[in-house]
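User: Hey, quick favor. My workstation is busy. Could you predict this chain's structure for me?
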Amino acid sequence: MTESRELFDRLVQDALDAHFSGWDFSYLNDKTTAEPLPWDYLSIVRTAMQGADSMLDMGTGGGEVLLSLAPFPPHICATEAYAPNIPIARERLEPLGVKVVATSDDQCCMPFEDGEFALVIDRHTYFDAPEVFRILKPGGLFITQQVGALNFFELNEWLQGDEARPTWDICTLDWHVTNLTAAGMQVEEAQEVRPRVAYLSIAAVVYYLRGIPWQVPDFTVEKYIDKLFAMHQHIEANGSLTTRNHRFLIRATKPG
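Assistant: No problem, here it is.
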């Protein structure tokens, strides 16, 4: 028991000391395993970029994903609502010709012209369907991969028990498809999956909950220390703690 607790304390401290910026979760690479998604978001976007003369990346984070998609169309912008990410994204992207714009969390009234973009992409950021419709050119394409309301909900159940509730009940595939259709978009593709993710170390759990504070809004190590230790013991006994992602993909076009 003493050895287990000492290991637990070391792993938790390592997660607390680890650097986190942008949406860089490389710390988790050797501490988790995940079933692959049935689609490749980057490949889908790269195909859509061919021939596009203008593009917007909504919720670019620190610019990590967009950077991997270079070279870019002649006119390209990115938005970000989380203030600490904005200078990181600008440092990475603006030398490549990307204009990085600060926006609000609701993504309404973005400072872009009607019909400004041939392609709008969004990986894991809330979007306002009428606003997406407004800024797309006729015939323009919207591609989004979203995190659903049940993402890693097993962590909430471990820590919060019977009080566990999804943070965003509305974040479902059907809800977004309905809103896009009502805004005038034509939904060409809609897929939803819940692949398994295994946490191999309690350090991975703590690091994730630090980086995504809305998963368990009142999370601190001190408040949940006993339940975190129980999770650590489960990982030691079983080799991992299994949770599930919740992802959906939508491709929609603005009628020409």
